[in-house]
Design a protein that fits this description.
With 180 residues, the protein is mostly helical. 54% of the residues lie in helices and 6% in strands. It has seven helices and two strands. A two-stranded antiparallel ribbon has the order 1-2. The longest helix has 23 residues. It starts with a helix and ends in a 7-residue tail after the last helix. The relative contact order is 0.08. The mean pLDDT is 84.
Length: 180
Amino acid sequence: MWTRENIEELLASILQGYFIGTFLILDTPPEQAIFPFWTVEGLDAVKPDGKPGNHATVRLVLDGQQRITSLFYIDHEKDHFETLWGKACASLAKAYQRVILPAGYGEVAERWIPYSTLLVPLAVLLQVAEEKQVGEAIYRKVDRWYWGNVFAQRYDQAVDTTSYRDVREMKDASNSSKPP
């Protein structure tokens, strides 16, 4: 069973144009299937006539079931996806404001932002801080993380790997009193 994080990684891979593997599909008459099978959960709500008995042939997914199921939910749970997308956009706007406002990091113009690639992980970390509602201490951790990365030039290369690792470590650090 895939977690939400697995599904998010699949979607990120698709959006970035990465190869997500192949699918192994077996077409067979439903009454001659060589093993028991079931439809994707939620298919009845989307396509009531999608029951296997209503068709001469069914397609059994032998490899790629979790990817196809995840894509089905992404496609048919649009309201939830759009809610998350709106939340992500709002978080990015907050991160940008934190970087450019004098009360934040005080970058006076876009061209002076040291690493625009820091905006996405910064947005995630600010969202985590907001959701946890643990006060100013977590924002101080985020500030130390931001400036530490700027001065160490950690976002010069391997941005995806660095972002993923930093977000995971900062989420863990938000639960403890240790510095990031």
